[in-house]
Structures are given as C-alpha cells and as structure tokens.
Design a protein that fits this description.
The complex is a heterodimer of chains A (264) and B (417). Chain A has 264 residues and is of the alpha/beta class. Chain A has one domain: Rossmann fold (3-Layer(aba) Sandwich). In chain A, the strands form 2 sheets. Chain A has a 6-stranded mixed β-sheet, with helices on both faces. With 417 residues, chain B is an all-alpha fold. In chain B, strand 1 and strand 2 form a beta hairpin. At the A-B interface, helix 2 of A face helix 12 and helix 13 of B.
Amino acid sequence: MTDATPLIEVPPIEAPLIEMRGVSKRFGGIHAVNDMSCDLYPGEVVGLLGHNGAGKSTLIKVLAGVYPPDEGEIRVNGAPVDLRNPRESRAAGIETIHQTLALADNIDAPGNLFLGRELLTPFGTLDSHRMEHEARKIIQRLNPNFTEILKPVRAMSGGQRQTVAIARALYFNARILIMDEPCAALGPAETRMVMETILALKKEGIGIFLISHDMHDVFEVADRVTVMKNGKLVGTERVADITPDDVLGMIILGKKPGGNGAVV
Amino acid sequence: MKWAVMKRGTMRHLLRNLGIDPRFSSMVLALVVIWLCLQFLTDGIFLTPRNLYNLSIQTCVTAVMACGMVFVIVARQIDLSVGSLLAFTGMVLAFVQVHVFAAGQALADSDLGWIISILAGIAVGVAAGIFQGIWVALAGIPAFVVTLAGYLMFRGAAFLVTDGQTISPLQPTYERIGGGLGGSIGPTASSVLGILAALWLVFHVWHTRRQRRRYGALQAPIWVDVLKVIAGSMVIAAFVYMMNAYPDPSSRDAEGNRIGKGIGIPVLILLGVMIVLTFIATRTRFGRYVFAYGGNPEAALLSGINTKRLLIAIFALMGTLSAVAAVITTARLNAGANSMGTLQELYVIAATVIGGTSLAGGLGSIPGAVIGALIIQSLDNGMVLLDVPSAQRQILIGLILIGAVWFDTAYNKRAGR
C-alpha cells in the first residue's frame, strides 16, 4: 500500500498556464504584434489593454489559433504548442469569447454552444436532445432567467447572446479563457452578470485574459494588466501597485509608471 | 406602441403557434392558385391524370438538383454550372453504356452495364464538383466566377465526348428510369406506398408531439395536428389516385383493360433524394455546418470547422445530384445529347429561391425547394398546354425569378432579419 501523504508539505509551484515569448505577427509590411511577451497564471485575470489598433485582438487571435504567429514561442502548461487553427487552440484548453461573439445567427443556442463539437448518437447523428439538455444545464447556471434557448440566436437579447458565448467557452472545461470586450454591448445588469461570472471562474482556478476599454471593470476583476502599444509590450504591472492614471499613461504615452521615457 | 408591434407580427405569430410554417404554407397556397388558374385557362386539361403524370416526371430533374442547390445557396455560394454538368455527366454515362459496353458484349445486355454507366456518370459529377470546390475553397475565387467557367467548360466537355453526336438508343431496362414506357411501379405498389407515406405522417406528427411534451416545449393544439394529418393524407391519396388513373399504354390485364401507371420511377428517385438530403441537413454534422457557415462564415471558422473541406463537399454533393438528374434526363430521352440541361441552372436556382432558400445564406428547406420546382414546372407545363412560345415562356420564368427574390427580400425585412 502506498501512502499518498507526502512527508514534507511542498507548496505547489504554480506553472503559468500560458507563456508567450517574443511573439510577432505581420500582415504584409505591418507589424500587428511585435516581439510580444506575456503570461497568465491559474486563477488569475490579466487585463490586456491598449488603444484601438494596439494589437490586442491580433494577439488573442494568435492564441485562438486564427493567426499562426510568424515568430516566437507559446507554451501552454509549460509545453510548447503550435496553434495553427482554432481546433488546435481548443484542444490545448484555450477557449475564446470573441468580440463579435462568433455565433451563427440562424442557429439556436444549443447548436451554437456545441458548434464544431457536437454530441453524437451511437449512429453518428446529431444528438439534439442531449445537446439541448446540456445547454439548458449550463445556461441555467449562468443566467437563470434565460429559458427560451431554442430560438435562433438572432432573436435573442445582447445579454442572452453573451450568455451563449460564455456557456460555449465554459462547457468544455477550459482552463484558459480569453474574453475580448465581453461587456461592450451589454447593459449594466448584464455587465454585472459577466463580472460575477469572471470572479467565480477565477475561484475555480481558471486563467482569464480580459480585453476591455472600461478601466473600472479591469480594476475590479484583474490581478495584473498588460499594456500594448503599436503591437509592442509597454509593460505588465500588478493592479495593486498602480492607479488607473498610471495605466492610462501606459496606454496613451507608452510610458511605464515611474519611468522617464516612453518604452515604445 | 405595443399594439402596433403585435399587429405587425400577429398573423405570422399565430401560424407559428399552430405549428405551421408561414413561408411554406404561402408557397403551397401559391401552387394551388397557379394550378386552379391553369386548370381554368386550359379548359380542364391541366389537372388530368395524364398531364399530372407528365408534370410529376418533368419536375423531378429540376427538383433533384434544387435539393442540392439548397445546400449551395444556404452556404452563401451559387452553382451556375449544374445544367452543363448535367449534359457532361449524361454524355459520359451514355457513352459508357453504349460505346464502352458495345452491343454483343455480355455486359451490354446484363443490368451490370447500365449500373456501371450510372456510377461512371456520378463519379464524373463528383470529380467536377470537387474541381470547382477546390477553386472556390482553396484559391478563394468567388463561386459565381468558378461555376460560370464551369458552365462553359462542362458544356464544351459534353460536346467533346462524342464530337457532338447524339448517343442513342440506351438500354431498354435503363430507359424505364425515365418514367416512360414501363417507367412506373403500377397501381398496387403505388397504393401501398401511399398508405405507408400516410402512416409515416401520422407517426411523425405523433412523435413530434411526444418529444415536445417530454421537453416541455410549446405544443400546437391537437386539432391543428389532426388537420395536418388529414390534409397531408388527402394530398397523398389524391396524388396516388391521379397516378393510378393514368392508363399505361404498354400493359393490359387479363381482360384486356389498361392498367394504371402509378407513381413514376423518377418520382421515387426524387423521394429518395429528398429523404437522404433532409436527413443530412437536419441530423448530421455536415448539414449543421452548412447552415452555420451560411449564418456566419467567421463563426464557423472560429468554431474549428474545416470550412475549406466543407465548401468542397458542398460542390461535390451538387455534382452528384447533377449526375442523378442526368440519369433521369438520359433515360427519359433514351439518348445522350450535348444540349441536355440547357438553361436548367436557371430553373434550378429559381426553384430553390422560390422555395424559400434565402440568397443571403443560412436559411433554406428541401421540401420548399421541391415545391418551388413544382411551381416552376407547373407554369412551364401550363404554358406549353396554352401554346405559349418558348421565348415568352422564358420571359415569364425570368419575371417570376425576380418576383421570388423580391418576395424574399420583402419577407425578410418584415420578419425583422
């Protein structure tokens, strides 16, 4: 019989969920992402900030497998990965909630939730009933008032559509979540729901990259912020150590707080 | 304010709650009106067993391809090459049947010969579809351009198979597939099939009700479903009755009376195509992906769907159905001619759009496309009965296509899409 209890209590050394080193992505002559490095730890929310066109969305599309990087290394749980398409990114445990939500408007909530990963019957046909049942379970958890899930998502409210997109990311037990402007199109109550979901996921040990323009939201849930300008990294700071004004300085001027000159 | 919103969607809402698709029912209504008008204009010739039998056969070629075109248009593509591809696959098929298995050889007389020729035609159709799909999916050339090129190329290829010569006659057994002499299943089998179809309808409605109850979904009132079953059964019964009432000139019973023809073989092929494609559209991953891609191509890509392979598969499916339509056409003509299927692509696209498939993508139905084909062919058939010259017929069909797209646009605007 083996004793499972170790003799000495070793504090777990947390390996980063994601490590990006020197990642670059070019479109023609434009360096959309230039030598970018950042990381994400379990149970952590990292706010990814920057102007429009700073390269945030390109960076997360690299992680989502939409744009394979031209240079640089990405490690997931310490192991280098080669994310050449969205399938491989999902297989690596990375789920992305895109700004556009990436929902097929003509299909209902369960159809969208399982899009690309449908549950099948033993005969290889779509198991609509099981998909509907599973979709109801997870959507109930996120938004108990949302019961009419069988209409095309085009007919749903902004918050309901957002719920479908979040449910899709959560259902498959992702450890890494990327949220691109999850509250941009939402009202106050729905924004609250998303913020609370983020905090709950954090407790479960999921790592989240959060892209947002709302400094208030970022300071509420994020542990660190990573600021980009012109495709380059300005800096990564702990939220506890800085003020929103410092972050604005980083975004607008590309200056690190306390530093003298612009980094970028 | 609230009242105005309600009023605008009340009729549609009411129908929806009754479990009736407003779009589909309006098409059926249009068909009924067209039939009654033609019946009146042709002094009662239109709705006779003989003409309805012919109409059922004529509809099949357009309808088989329209079923495939639903997938193409739902995925925001178009295929202008289907008429030319029908000619090309038909010529290859006839060539294999007549010239490769030359008369006198064992294969020419056995059934194996024409079966192999059909397989050859379908193989060519699939290959042509994949060829076009590759240019669309991998090279990123718009389907409009690729299939316009295909429209020219396949017509040319059809000519080259025999340097423009018509291939005739085909094998007698094969000829029956066209619905001509001996090309139907007779009254007894037709009646049995009709009864089975009605039983299936009952089962389907009952099954849907049970499923909806199990999942607590909104239930249509029972009388609507009963009415649906009765109306559906009456349509089936009327169809079988009409087909059985058309005497087959080639067969007589013991007393020398002519036996009714019953349902034509092309109609059975169409039914098979409808069942298989409806299954694919609603129960398989492929079908789900076609609709998802049509709804939002970016979402499909971001969901990890291999969209390139999907597009190639859609064009391959369309190629297959062009070949199936070529089988019916060549069998009906008892020949392979390179002019077969001329302008057919427009009839097919028109039928699909009239049948409620939206050119914006993401929306379409296979039964709708078949009704659309029936509407187009009814008008064509009726105008032939009225001695309308082909030039005028083309103009009218063209106007109807514009009208259908206009209706689609107006309908979607009202439905708030």
